[in-house]
Amino acid sequence: MQSNEIRARFLTFFEKRGHAIIPSASLIPENDPSVLFNTAGMQPLVPYLLGESHPSGATRLANSQKCVRTVDIDEIGDNTHATFFEMLGNWSLGDYFKEEAIEWSFKLLTDKEEGFGLDPKRLYVTVFEGDENAPRDDEAFEIWKKYIPEHRIYFMGAKNNWWSPGDNGPCGPDSEMFYDVTVEGLGDMTKEEYLKADDEQKIVEIWNDVFMEYEKKDGKVIGKLSKKNVDTGSGLERVTMVVQGKNNIYDTDLLQPIVHQVHKVSQVRQVTDGNERVERIIADHLRTSIFMIADGVVPSNTDRGYILRRLLRRAVRLSHTLELSCGLEELVGSVIHIYTDSYPNLVKDAVRIQNEIKKEEEKFRLTLVHGMKEFERISEGKSELSGAETFSLFSSYGFPIEITKELASERGIVVDEKGFEEEFKKHKEISAVGSEQKFKGGLADTSEISTRYHTATHLLQKALRTVLGEHVFQKGSNITAERMRFDFSHGEKMTDEQKKMTEDLVNEKIKEALPVMYEDLPIDEARKRNPIGLFGDKYGDVVRVYTIGEGDKKWSIELCGGPHVKNTSELGHFKILKEEAVSAGVRRIKAVLE
Predict the structure, then answer these.
(1) How many separate domains does the chain show?
(2) Same-domain pairing of 565 and 546
(3) Does the pTM of the predicted model rise above 0.90?
């Protein structure tokens, strides 16, 4: 069974059981400042798990959500870890609970007609053993006994079998499913044997059912919820691995074609365990980078862009050690081919994705050789590299810390990671101060004309997102009484047609005489409005949300603290003077109001 069929079977199974199938959200969280990327299937659905009604009106949902996690980056290349993965999930919003969730999990995994046809004798389950916050989950245990022998059900502590989003909100016990991936089969195991098999990756977690039935406040469980929810997650890569009878995710049809292509263009023919892992890391990082770029991320030295840069540059460095006969952009097709049907936007964006990867690789290769020489020079005869030395490799030669750590590890040298983070933080603070002095928050003054220009940036950003795509976000602005300058994320020069469409859209909204209104809202309420803009440390408990237009003519919703006109008719005629590059993945528009 191929991965496309596994994904389709999962969704069809739950659609037949009354679930609304919803599309994957972007990798970029819309209103969650706690993470740079969606790291779990439930993340985009948090408002609905907290009680808000889903737009579809459904109380049963299912989808396959794109996710990125880099916390386990040192484990990439082993049997089960990947930075990008799809999480198959089904949710009950105050509808069904443990009985149905467990029954369906077991049926989908083991049924040969509707499900994946896995061997139930290779399945192991864990349930919550109880602690001072909540009692032992005997209910889940009794339900699981209907499907597998009780000696293959293990009670585990909160570290493994309790889900909580933080110190406040819904929480509860969960039940995890593991599958035996050994050739011979492990059979019945004691708890100690089970834990050892887990450590040795002889069994692999393939599903988790979370039962949100308690409420936590200030870190303590205060009671049960009146409305109980179910949140489940099943990693597509791992399920595909066990369904296809493999012992690692890199031998599945989701990753093997990419690994094969990397191996094919490698000029280092000697096959070793080390080389095999390097090929896997390149395949993983390339796949993740492609999905990031497709969702609007571009390489940079901050936030999401820095994560992307780290992954690409590590892949470039490793491709250097394997002496690949081509650049990474020529391997993009091997990834996109796998996802042609499930993510057709990758096909549409193929050229832009290749161009972004090529630009980043070329930029890094210019300093890679010199950086390697500098590393050899500063590390000679040392057992440890300081934070300052590690940061110097980053700032002068573009070496993300992962590259320095790998090079150091190969030579038995320790890297002062904490010192690096301190140096990096100091650098960011200095840069931020410099930026504030240079741009004064974007406006040179709060005169009437500057206020008009400031409002025009809101119309412009929405117009650019409409014409170019949802990957466009403001990267900076500088407004004077003479003109506006607007920087935004986009990897290619705008065509004359795109500039004309953007200009026309802005002027159309000016002619519609749309009202400009604002509300000061609690930050949680503001998130529900789904405004453009990132929630972060610069915002307090109450934020200002500006809306341009109302009813059917609502055009723009943004977080903003600046001055605005009361109606777009006050702006005059908008004209783009110039569109140009600022840096990799960032463009600039200069415009005037006539």
Answers:
(1) 3
(2) yes
(3) no
Same domain, residue pair 392 and 343: yes
pLDDT tens digits in sequence order for the chain, 594 residues long: 999 999 999 999 999 999 999 999 999 987 667 788 998 888 888 888 878 888 888 999 999 999 999 988 889 999 989 999 999 999 999 999 999 999 999 999 999 999 999 999 999 999 999 998 899 999 999 999 999 999 999 999 999 999 886 777 788 999 999 999 999 999 999 999 999 999 998 999 999 999 999 988 888 888 888 889 999 999 999 999 999 999 899 999 999 999 999 999 998 866 666 789 999 999 999 999 999 999 999 998 878 999 999 999 999 999 998 999 999 999 999 999 999 999 999 999 999 999 999 999 998 988 898 889 999 999 999 999 999 999 989 888 889 898 999 999 989 999 999 999 999 888 776 655 644 433 334 444 456 777 888 899 999 999 999 999 888 888 888 877 678 899 998 988 999 999 999 999 999 999 999 998 888 788 777 777 777 764 443 445 677 888 999 888 888 888 876 778 889 998 999 999 999 988 778 899 999 988
Which of 14, 19, 68, 59 lies closest to 41, judged by CA?
68
Strand partners, 443: 479
Where in the sequence is the domain holding 479, given as residue range(s)?
A: 443-593
Instruction: Name the residue among 172, 146, 29, 30 with its Cα closest to residue 92.
Output: 172
Query: For residues 514 and 452, what is the distance between their CA atoms, to the nearest angstrom?
Result: 14
CATH at residue 108: 3.30.930.10
Report d(CA 253, CA 284) in Å as an integer: 13
Cα 98 to chain centroid distance, Å, stands at 29
